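If you are new to this repository, start here. Below is one unmodified record pulled from the training split, so you can see the exact layout before writing a loader.
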Amino acid sequence: MLSLGPLAFAAPWLLAGLIVLPAIWLLIRITPPAPRTVAFPAIRLLYGLQSPEETPDRTPWWLLLLRLLFATLVILALAQPLIGAKQDLEGDGTVVIVVDNGWASAPGWPDRKAAALDLIERAGRAGREVAVFPTALSESAALERGGLMAPEDARTFVNGLAPQPWASVPAVAAEHIEAASIQRPASIFWLADGVEDAEDAALAERLIRFGGLTIYEGGEPPMALTARIGEGNALTARVTRLGAGAQQIVNIRAAATDGRVLTRAIATFAEGEPAAEVDVELPLELRNELARLELEDLPGAASVALLDESFRRRPVGLVAGSGFAESQPLLEEMFFLDRALAPFSEVSRGTMSDFLERDISVIALPDTGLLPPGEKQRLFDWVEKGGTLIRFAGPRLAAASLENRGLGESELLPVRLRGGDRSLGGVLSWSEPAALAPFEGETPFADLPDYDNVLIYKQVLAEPSIELADRTWASLVDGTPIVTAKAVGDGRIVLFHTTANTDWSDLSLSGAFVEMLRRIVAVSAGVGERAGEGAVPPVETLDGFGELGQPPASARSLSFVKGEAAEVDFEHPPGYYGSELSRTAVNLGPEAAKMQPLATVPAGAERVSYGGGDELDLAPWALTAAVILLLLDFIVTLVMCGLVPGVGNARVRETAAMLLLAAGLAAVPLAASAQSTGFDPSSMSEEDRWIMRAALATRLAYVLTGDPAVDEISRSGLSSLSEVLTQRTAVEPLEPMAVDVEVDELSLFPLLYWPITSAQSELTPNGVARLNLYMRNGGTLFFDTRDRIDSGSGAGPGLQRLRELTRELDVPALAPVPENHVLTKAFYLLESFPGRYEGGKLYVQQGEGDGTSEVSPVIVGSHDWAAAWAKDDAGFYQYAVVPGGELQREMAFRSGVNLVMYMLTGNYKADQVHVPAILERLGQ
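And here is the target side for that same chain:
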């Protein structure tokens, strides 16, 4: 390759063709004289019997230059001119490309693939053999082990590579490299994923023995997402990044099994912190639909956290009435149980028979005496299959125990009970109420705080036994059990030795009651099929980009060990294991969260970054210019030979030919400069690029509030409104843009949507001046207080904050939109302007409805329009509209369409105010 500054030639030997240009010049400079039209009267045969000798004419210099330029362009095109050409690869041996294609390579996979294809292209130009070695095993491991191949085959091989959902195995790649017949000195390129591996050092040492080693770094770094049940049964997402860095915001999407986006959450990395956490909040009715969490715009198996039954809210049945002897509705106990279980469970009331006929995780049984034999056996079978029975003591259980001189475990109790009860001042009594003892031992209550303010006045006592200590989950300060439990088959029976209401204790009034019930429900399994322990087959698995699909042929059954996390590898990819009815999630996130930046670089290795610039091939443009010159030569020749009608005079013909030549020569550099010497947007500043984006297309805009969640709603809502405008009107706006009123150029947007939040900072004098200038020059500020201002009601928090923000602005007097205002008929005929809410007023400049003034510089509403418009990536609406449902959402979109058309067309439709009078005159 020959380099001349930024210009290089891939086939420089073809430039030798320029030597023949003098010969071409000598050949084309001579041209026969053009034929002449001569009158032929017969008398002229008597004259000029001896013809004068004629000498050949010479080609005009400008035509000679045209033809020489044509030949030069053809020769240069054949020499493959390049701008920004990469340097030739060092050495003359094999070009070895090691590609990290484990889970960490997914976010930056396009960069790695482009780098590999670029290296293959350079190797092909040099006529060198290529060897490609991926570091992660794949489903077709035998076919994708890599090896020596021609550049064309290597290109096909790389195009077929994809990241895998497990870690790289550098040792396997090293073995394949050792087994290959690599010609030395080789050029070694390691396309690293940036994550340290224990075997990286050994791989690097082996590679550097074959020749010069270049390690590619950078690109999109990976992140790992994990999920857990946090305090208060909240779903907590934890995001881990590769190393610590500056403050960073990532978006987390919560999706259902069918792909619907249920909600979004924003996790913020503090500066210098490698991890960030956020609670994913969902309404009760959507929690059990949640199937996965994923990082938006960051592909990869580590960016996905699959959720299984352990993350779902357990259904709990409260037995409100049954056919049991001596039973009656216990409304007081039901009230306390319902209030305690509702925050983290799906609570339903019914009879015992109702619950036993359907899949339910937990049955809570308030104070009950002896159970009928039939019901008792059915309930016992249900517990054995995995159900959790929570029983509570009380007068009925104490009476049954006293009457039968104690109750045994056969009565669906975790321990044997003594007859009667222990009460304050009774036979089995204490002189003062007893408090709860600190929670100890390996029980679900082990890490709960002390609740020494909870007092127990009465309880049923357990008979002392060898198993009593192991079955005691909570006790009083005097050592007597207050909560006992026993495993029965796959299920569990739990007994509170006091009542569920305040008759015997104040436990039900404390936070301890809620936390204890939450822990019991959390460890329940339910009666459905479970993956359990032992080997279970894969049902669905993730690929390298985090997409769920059928398991690969290499996937094997996975053995779960209680208390241990499953290990992800080539034979056990992340995904769901078990059966279609009950699946256990195996995620890559916990393992990937341990990642560390690549630090193993041997001495002598060169480190480069991905995306070092693209080569620009000028050959197509040179050939295009040559063809243009050839056509010009043809046209000029026709003109000079007199074959173009209407051009008869020789001087006229020559002048026309030179003009054609000048036009053609001017067009040649323009054709080439469109690609080779055109304006480079990358040389612009960030501010200039922002202005170009805003100026070159119609876009809606929203004001940044300082609240990332609200800003995301604004972006999503305006994006959806832009789609509706494109579909229904002649306005075709592109993606909306965020605007900082203190810094950005405002005049590029006719309308600024401004949601009001408490996080919005006060306007500076500069911001006030900029906004006042914007309004004076025809711009409109659309304030959305999002608190539904009702006519005659007091100011809501949004309106109060709006008054604080705009006290220095030149806001005109405002009034509700009048009946015949242009806004009501700018596109649709509207009577109101609902958003996510309805019922409030929309305010515009007072007196603006008469059609004689300009567009209102300020519009104020309270219906949270952006939330009504906002859609997720799957096309589903993110927020419900109340109270009108989807019909109200359609009217919200129509309100947005009218608003935009009003901003763009002004009072263009103001004459419609007089339509009734016009129609009346036409009728006359």
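Two things worth knowing about this chain: The chain has a mean pLDDT of 81. The chain has six domains: 2-34+56-84+619-673, 95-221, 223-311, 319-522, 534-592, 687-914.
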